[in-house]
TrEMBL record:
<dbReference type="GO" id="GO:0005762">
    <property type="term" value="C:mitochondrial large ribosomal subunit"/>
</dbReference>
<feature type="region of interest" description="Disordered">
    <location>
        <begin position="29"/>
        <end position="57"/>
    </location>
</feature>
<dbReference type="InterPro" id="IPR040008">
    <property type="entry name" value="Ribosomal_mL46"/>
</dbReference>
<dbReference type="InterPro" id="IPR033650">
    <property type="entry name" value="Ribosomal_mL46_NUDIX"/>
</dbReference>
<dbReference type="InterPro" id="IPR015797">
    <property type="entry name" value="NUDIX_hydrolase-like_dom_sf"/>
</dbReference>
<dbReference type="GO" id="GO:0003735">
    <property type="term" value="F:structural constituent of ribosome"/>
</dbReference>
<protein>
    <recommendedName>
        <fullName>Nudix hydrolase domain-containing protein</fullName>
    </recommendedName>
</protein>
<feature type="compositionally biased region" description="Basic and acidic residues">
    <location>
        <begin position="34"/>
        <end position="46"/>
    </location>
</feature>
Amino acid sequence: MPKPHDWEVEHSLWKRSEDLRLGFAKEYQNQGDGDQRLAQESKDLRTFNPVPSTTKDDMAMDRRSLRRRLGERLFLLVKSRNKEGSAGGFEPGSWHFPVVEHAEGESIRQTGERALSSSVGRSQPIFFIGNAPMGHLPSIPEGSTTFFMLAQVVGDPWSCKLKPESGYEDWAWVTKEEMPNLVQDPRLRELLSRML
């Protein structure tokens, strides 16, 4: 850094004295241990070893675990069983978010909460963000629409299991970049690329 001009030094000193006089700044006493504290902080920084963010589940490529890809957001995808008439108009055996048919008198948020609780149960601490959906996709059966709600896992629920009656055969926690490898529906893939 270049040495400041004399007028800059003079102005800086004048500004400091004016700030002190007007009460905009305060003069603090020197604690006397600043050099020792600075030396200790430097020593601590040199000996600090951060915990790796790569876990055993990353190494094992276990997509069923939330204890992976710790620096990124993970999204729950489920694979529907090979049966006709699945909710949302998704192909049997395809990967997608948990879905259920809307029940009369239910809000969109309540339907989203029911979709999640019917797939993984209520043991997971999950917070739904807002009442409005974050996206929608017109379903293949004309006249119906699939809405997508934003929810976040709260706390440390490292294990997740599908309910046997959920209608799904598999689940995966994936990043946005991993989704195209599982989601085959081109309409859903395009929506996810814009929505997430």
